[in-house]
Amino acid sequence: MNRRPLIHGQSLSALSGWCGARGEPAFRAGQIWQWLYQRRAACASAMTNLPASLRAALDAEFEFQAVTLAGAEEAGARKLLLRLRDASCVETVLIPARDHLTVCVSSQVGCAFACAFCASGQAGFDRNLEAGEMVGQVLAAASAAGASPGNVVFMGMGEPLDNYDAVLAAIRILNDKDGLRIGARRITVSTCGLAPAIRRLADEGMQIELSVSLHAADDALRSRLMPVNRRFPLADLMDACAGYIRKTDRIITFEYTLIQGVNDGADQARALARLIGPLKCRVNLIPLSAVEEFEGQSSTEPRTRDFARLLDRERINVTVRQSKGAGVRAACGQLRKRHLSAGRPAAGV
Ligand code: SAH
Questions:
Q1: I need a surface site. Which of 12, 114, 296, 313 has the fewest CB within 10 A?
Q2: Calpha distance 174→121 (Å, rounded)
Q3: How far is the CA of 104 from the centre of ligand 1 (A)?
Q4: From CA 160, how far away is CA 213, in angstroms rounded?
């Protein structure tokens, strides 16, 4: 594997330090970032306002291509299968909306948390992604879409708060006014509920959006669906969420995937309302995408409507997400899983 550091994982200050060590003024780092993020240069030779020796050193010491396209699927959402330098693959999803593009980024190869309904979780954990591999996904998505992403959500494969430092480093590059200029409030981190990491995030002083995947309002069921609940049960998780809201003055979004006959009953809606009612939050109800390893079915539309109505009656702010990926088996981890089992790129399937 190519071990040169990824250029898209370098903070501006790290690059300034690198320039300084080569006897170059610090402003060169700003010029390099300009080329990388405003003009999207694919290599240093394009950076014509830099001295030739510096361009050569950049090309020799850094890797410019973190990801390459290994496959894609079309639907309401477009899903890219991206190959990393060690030949492992991750999924990146492009979700077009009327006036902006949302990119759904993976934070790990695989996932260690084994949620019962999730294809990534069932496939197990491989490794953390580097910051440059996450920024690289956003750049690859922008180039595939021919548009600049307005929103980035860390809702692809993996648990972002289990790869905390690299995810935060990537967010800082995405958010920087000299980087990709994506507003903090347009960057969402989604977690399966790592309470200590939520507490740490609350102290970062960032304005990013936090989503918490809840899926059940009682410990017994949540532990069955999401084994992470045994480590951080609901009382601990809710305490961390309350602290996050207090410290950041932001709203938390609770993700709740409706599974027919499992977590979609009227009592469960009321229990959910009781659990999160005291918090400044909203609930996003998500239809379950069918995955092979999990027998559950998505709740019917009337049942989904009833569940939403009950929450609404309890004054919980609730939305129902239209799943754009389900039609192409593009829910979390599914494209990569087929790629792995076929032993070849998923292009054209
Ligand atoms: N690990 C993070 C982010 C990745 S998963 C987290 O747990 O939040 C992104 C979202 O997709 C989570 O809310 C997750 O619970 C949900 N998800 C995973 N598999 C799904 C499926 N088969 N159907 C619907 N939602 C799913």
A1: 313
A2: 26
A3: 12
A4: 12
CA 8 to chain CA centroid, Å, is 17
- Residues 6+ positions from 34 with CB-CB distance below 8 Å: 178
End-to-end CA distance of the chain: 28
Query: Which one-letter amino acid corresponds to residue 74?
Result: E
What CA–CA distance (Å, rounded) separates 277 from 337? 37
Would the CB of 291 count as within 6 Å of ligand 1?
A: yes
User: Which amino acid, 349?
Assistant: V
Does 91 qualify as catalytic in the annotation? yes
Phi-psi domain of 202 (left: phi exceeds 0; alpha: psi -120 through 50; beta: other): alpha
The DSSP secondary structure of 127-138, one letter per residue, reads EEPPHHHHHHHH
Torsion, Cα 55 58 59 60, to 10 degrees, reads 120
- CB of residue 225 inside a 6 A radius of ligand 1: no
Check pocket membership of 162 for ligand 1, CB cut-off 6 A: no
- Cα separation of 92 and 171, whole Å? 16
Cα-to-centroid distance, 254 and ligand 1 (Å)? 11
By mean pLDDT, which of 22-36, 40-54, 63-77, 80-94 is the weakest?
63-77
Is 332 considered catalytic here? yes
Q: Is 304 in the pocket of ligand 1 (CB under 6 A)?
A: no
Joined together, the tokens standing for residue 61 give 């010491």
Structural domains for the chain: 7-61 (1.10.150.530), 68-342 (3.20.20.70)
Please tell me the distance from the alpha carbon of residue 126 to that of residue 271, in angstroms, as a whole number.
36
pLDDT tens per residue, range 275-306: 999 999 999 999 999 888 899 999 999 999 99
* Residues 332/120, Cβ–Cβ less than 8 Å: yes
If one counts every other C-beta atom within 10 angstroms of the C-beta of residue 101, the result is 20
Please work out whether the CB of residue 331 comes within 6 Å of at least one atom of ligand 1: yes
pTM: 0.93
Q: Which of 19, 24, 73, 91 is catalytic?
A: 91
